[in-house]
Amino acid sequence: DNTILNIALPTIQRDLNADASQLLWAVDSYILVFAALLFTWGVLGDKYGRKRILTIGLITFALASALCAFATSPEQLILFRGLMGIGGAAVLPVTLAVITVVFPPHERGKAIGMWAGAVGGAVALGPVLGGLLLENPQWTSWLTNNDWGGVFLINVPIVIVGLVGIFMVVPETKNPHPQRLDIPGLIISFIGLVLFVYGIIHASSERTFLTPSVLIPMALGALVLAGFVIAEARSDHRSFDVTLFKNRGYTVSLTVVTLAFFAMNGITFTLPFFLQTLRGYSTLTAGLCFLPFAIGQILAAPRSAGMVNRFGYKVVMAGGMAIVTLALLVLSFALHLDTPLWLILLVFFFFGFGMGNVMAPASTVMQNVLPLARAGAGSAVQNTVRQVGGALGVAVIGTLLANQYAKNLAPSLDSLPAQFPSEAKDAMSNSIIATVEVLQRAVGQGLPASVAETVKNGAFTAYLDASHVTTLVSAGLALVAALILWFALPQITPPQKGVHAPAGRPLATEGEGHAHLTDAHSRAEADDAAGELEDSYAREAAEEYQPEPDKA
Predict the structure, then answer these.
(1) What tens digit of pLDDT does each residue of 495-547 get?
(2) How many C-beta atoms lie closer than 10 Å to residue 483's C-beta?
(3) What's the DSSP call for residue 275?
(4) Run of H or E including 101
(5) Cβ(206)–Cβ(21) below 8 Å
């Protein structure tokens, strides 16, 4: 859904007359609400049943998507995207929790690899499907009265298919010893996240971080979030389990995934403008350009478990981040108006291939340290932090891009005639799309075409130079992530069949023995395991996963 929106951003900006800050909010309003509610929905899933919460989340998501399709202003779109975040927050952590509970540890890596591969497939499906819908607006415009509503309406049939699959094959699981909901924690965390990210996004319109209207919300948000973490650490019914950060493998993996999401979201936010505006590709062609990225993820993620068994978590994950760093460096220096398309697609492929070798193993490491009974809340912790990283990636990269573009464009604006309206110049400095549209109108009002072409070429160069800066920032973060993995990730032994660590215990590291648990795919098997090994985690697994007789 986020990638299908990215490809539609230029069209939405023109149709709704949205500025750069409103575009950022159209992306981040979803991510803000999504991140703020992830761990709350995770707790609700553990308490009331994960299948039930998954169903509620999907229905909410579909209804809010339909509302987005009929938005008539940027403010409405931002509001309805926030409602989508409420439903989406119930989906992602619960799907990962179901996988964690249903699959035994030695199979969990492969299952999470398939889960991550599905994300990679969706990354490709979004831009391609978005481009197809945007090039054929007549398919939905008769209903939505706009050319982009189809990118949201398409969620409705996808959700229907998902619900059918859930009812057919997903067993209901829940925590046999649920805790009460942490209402104060939810409110405090939501306020903190809103303040913090608002400050960063507001920097886009101010074009600087060094102003009170930016610094004050960011500082207040950081203080509120710090207070939230302290309060959760002392709570006896916390929804954000801060004790997980005591595990070094969990903390390192989460840090790396957050940095990777920061870099990826920032890049995928800026690339559609390069492909559509600077290179002149149609929305469908621009969407197809993202296919290699997805193919790389689809190839790497499901196979990463086998690579981990052969080379270990550290080598596979650090190698993946090194590939991501190299791909971003190539984009930083080789991305120009005349860069061969095959080179861009090849770089996109390696970018996705590297991400696939990081996301799936990192998620497996984090899920394997969780107690089964709290799989939903635990998976929500990692999803919350990395989604906040993604939101910050869009906000920070978008702000840096806008500021750098305005700075680079200034000499070109000075070459315009003296009588050229200052308001038009201000609008041009907001975004590359605004620049092109203002110049097109100005030519119709008497501006010499040669002058307009010169300014447009200067604007394209200004945007490219700005994108090179932001891509270098992303490459630097990817390099930091690779170094953290190599020097800080402990040697973790992947679980083996018959001798493996159950969910709820760290995987064996150097100098430590393995924990043992016989596979518990039915209550009877788990009870036998508990009797033989006197292991409380086996009993927890028996209580946690009780499939229906026909599925057993």
Answers:
(1) 776 544 444 443 333 333 333 333 333 333 333 333 333 333 334 444 444 44
(2) 15
(3) I
(4) helix 92-102
(5) no
